[in-house]
Specification:
InterPro entries: Rossmann-like_a/b/a_fold, Universal_stress_UspA, UspA. This is Universal stress family protein. Belongs to the universal stress protein A family. The protein has 141 residues and is of the alpha/beta class. The chain has one domain: Rossmann fold, CATH 3.40.50. Helices cover 48% and strands 21% of the residues. It has five helices and five strands; from the N terminus they run E-H-E-H-E-H-E-H-H-E. A five-stranded parallel beta sheet has the order 3-2-1-4-5, with helices on both faces. Strand 1, helix 1 and strand 2 form a beta-alpha-beta unit. The longest helix has 24 residues. The radius of gyration is 14 Å and the shape is globular.
Length: 141
């Protein structure tokens, strides 16, 4: 049986991401895995100056709120988790973060909150499945 030590859960505020968090919390509770949460402030040109500072601040604030809400859910289940907010392209940031932080499993939602990304940039989940150096568990709400 495969044992997981560190699970990465990317969060974007969507129902599928919330369900992925529920699955990760269950795995952690049963097997004692560390959970790392990641929320990404996405900007298309990978340049924070390309967004108005007010819009960027709003996106960043929202990403931090998503992490805090997830921490509260974990705390209510008796678990402590680490949360991170990064700037960049979600597809690439998820794969890079997993590699940099030795995640041995990524649990993520089937699709996220941003329909624009799915239409123009392609599916973040599909990209992660193809490019991550670790196993990926896809959850549908």
């Amino acid at each position: 049986m495969m044992m997981y030590n560190r699970i990465l859960v990317p969060l974007d505020g969507s129902q599928n991401a919330d369900k992925a968090l529920d699955v990760a919390l269950g795995v952690s509770k049963n097997f004692g895995c560390e959970i790392q949460l990641l929320s990404i402030v996405h900007h298309i040109h990978n340049d924070a100056d390309s967004l108005s500072s007010k819009l960027y601040e709003g996106l960043s604030t929202n990403a931090h709120k998503i992490i805090e809400a997830a921490r509260d859910r974990a705390w209510n289940k008796g678990l402590t988790i680490k949360g991170y907010v990064r700037d960049g392209n979600p597809k690439k940031e998820i794969c890079e973060f997993a590699k940099e932080n030795d995640a041995d499993l990524i649990i993520m939602g089937k699709s996220g909150a941003n329909a624009f990304d799915r239409l123009v940039l392609g599916s973040t989940t599909a990209y992660v499945i193809r490019n991550a150096d670790t196993q990926v568990l896809v959850v549908n709400a």
